[in-house]
Amino acid sequence: MSDDLDPYRQGLQEFAARFEGVAFEDVHADVLDLLPERSGLVLDVGTGSGRDAAWFAARGWDVIAVEPVPELRSLAAGLHPSPRVRWLDDRLPGLEHCHRLGLSFDLIWLSAVWMHLPPSQWQRAMRKLATLLRPGGQIMVSFRNGGDDGGRGFHPVEGAVLERLARGFGLALVRRASPPDRSGRAGIAWTSMVFILPDDQTGALPVLRGVILNDQKSSTYKLALLRALLKAADQASAFACDDGDYVALPLGLVALYWLRLYKPLLAANFSQMPRRPGASPGFVKQGFRSLADVAPFDLKVGARFQGPLAKALGAALSDAADIIARMPAHFTTNRDGKPLFPARAVRPRALPDPLVLDQVALAAFGTIAVPVHLWAAMRRLAIWIEPVVVSEWTAIMRGYAERAGESFDATLAARQLAWQDPERDTATARRLFEALRARGQPLHCVWSGQRLTSAFHIDHGLPWAAWQCSDLWNLLPTSPRVNGSKSNRLVSAETMNRSRKRIQDWWRMAYLDEAASLPVRERFLIEANGTLAVPVAERSAEGVLDETFIGMDVQRLRLKHDQQMLEWSLP
Question: Domain check: are 277 and 329 in the same one?
C-alpha cells in the first residue's frame, strides 16, 4: 500500500463522513447474496471508518479490522465499539501481523483497497491473502478506476489481470460486477470481484499425508520431525518469523520437542529403527543420557536449568538439532528432490548458566524453515493431523518389534507416545493466590467479579479439554460455581471483554508486580511470548497486560473457529 497516508490523516473527518454516509447494503448490494449464511470469521483489510466491520459484527461475525492509519483506526474504534471487532495495525502487501495471529478466515473483505497497491506488489499481496483463507472461504475485492485520487496514489486495476493472478493461487472467480459510484461522482468506475478457495487448493494436506504415510522411512525420525513441527505450530507459533514463502523457526525449539517426544519411548525401550547390534539413535549421547531424571514435561518453553543439567541439556539440544538437520529435514523432500524443511544446525560455543529456554536461547541452535502453506495447515489442523502421525509411528514401532521377533505392548506404546503434560498443573497459580490472600489482598472471580473469601478454583481460561495449556496467563481465579457453569466451554467475546480489567488485575498482582519473584515474572513473559500470537514486549506493565489480553483473545478466536467450540456466557 502506498506509504503516503497523509491524505487520510489530513482529511480524516471528511473521509469518515463520506464513508459512513453510504449504507453497507447499498455499496455492496451486488455481492450480498454471496455472503455465507452462517456467520464466521472475517478479515476486513483497510477498514477505514469501520463501517463494514461494524456491519459484520452486528450480524454475529468475529472481525479482524486492519487499518494502517492510526488516527483512522482510533476513530473507527470510537465510532463502532464492539467486543466482536479487533482493531489491528497492519497493511498490504505483507499483512505480517495478520499472519502472526494464526487465524484462517471464512471471508476476506477488501473494499476500495486494491487500487492503493502498485502492480509490483499484487502477486505478493494475493499470495498472502490466499494463505489466510480457509478452504471454502471467499475473498471480496472492490476497486475503482478513474477520477481524481486526491493525492492518494491510486493505480489502474484490470479485472482480467486480477483474476489471472488469483487463479495462480487456487482461487476461482464466482462473480464480477460493476456497481455505480454510490456517492454520484462523475468519471469513477467501480468493480467488485468475489473469489472462492474451493478446496484445499494449497496442496498442503496431500503433502503432509505423503510425509506421514508414503515417504520411505529408515527410522521414526521423519515422523518425529513432523510431530515436533505440529507441536510448534500449535503451542509456540509466536516463535515463527515470516520469511517470504517460508516461516523460519528456531531449530532449538524443534529439538526441544524432539527430545520430549523421544524421551518416554526410549525409556520404555521401544525401537526407533531396525534392530542392529549396538545401534541407537544418533542423538542419544552423553547429554541426552544425563537428562534421565528430567521429566519429559519439564522440557518446555520457559523452563530454567542450571549447573550440570544446563550443560547436559545444551549438549542434548545440539545433538538433536544436528541429527534433525542432517537426517529427516534433509531427506524429507519435495517432488524436485529439494528438502521440504530446509534446516541449518549450529552448535553454540557457549550457553548461559542458568539456561532459560526462551526464543533467543533456542535460536542459538540454528533455524528450520517450513513452507508457509504447510505452516498455515499445521496451525489450523494440528489437532486432526497429529493422531495420524501417532498412528503411523505406532505401526512402524510394531513392525520393528515383529521383525526382531519381539512382543509389542500396544497399550504401553500409546501411553509413551502421548504428549506428556502435567495434567491441569495449577499449583503455581494456587500458591500465588493463597499468598496474596494471606497478605489481605482482595481477590475476585475474573468472570463474575465475586469476592473470593474462602473457596476458589483456578480455571484454565481457555479450556484444557480443547488446548492443553497451563501457562500462567491462562490460569485464572474463579468461584467454584462459575467454574462449574463454564466447564469445558469457551468464554464468549462479550464475557471476555467485560472481564478484561479483572483478568489484567490478576496478572498484575500475581505475576508482574514488584512483589512477584523474578522467576515467576520471567516465566509469565516467556510463556506469553511463546504461545500467544501477539508479541508481548517487556516494557511497561500496562503494555504487557494489553498485549497479553489481545493475544489470549486471538487464541480464543482460533479455538472457536478451528474447533467449532461451544461458547459460554455468564448467566
Answer: yes
Shared-domain flag, residues 188 and 210: no
Q: CA-CA distance, 2 to 412, in Å (whole number)?
A: 59
Q: Between helices 372-403 and 122-132, what is the axis angle to 10°?
A: 50
pLDDT for 2 equals 45
CA distances from 25 to 60, 76, 142, 182 (A): 16, 19, 14, 11
- Identify whether 308 is preceded by a cis peptide bond (ω within 30 of 0): no
Q: Across residues 84-89, what is the average pLDDT?
A: 96
User: What does R_g of the chain's alpha carbons equal in angstroms?
Assistant: 26
407 lies in the same domain as 502: no
Alpha-carbon distance of 172 to 198, in angstroms, equals 7
Mean pLDDT of 435-457: 95
Kindly report the average pLDDT of the chain as a whole number. Answer: 90
381 with 276, same domain: the answer is yes
Q: Quick one: 453 and 561 in the same domain?
A: yes
The pLDDT, as a whole number, for residue 425 is: 77
Residue 422 lies in a domain: no
Residue range of the domain that includes 519: 427-568
Q: What is the mean pLDDT of residues 217-240?
A: 93
Q: CA angle, 292 as apex, 287 and 298 as ends, to 5°?
A: 95
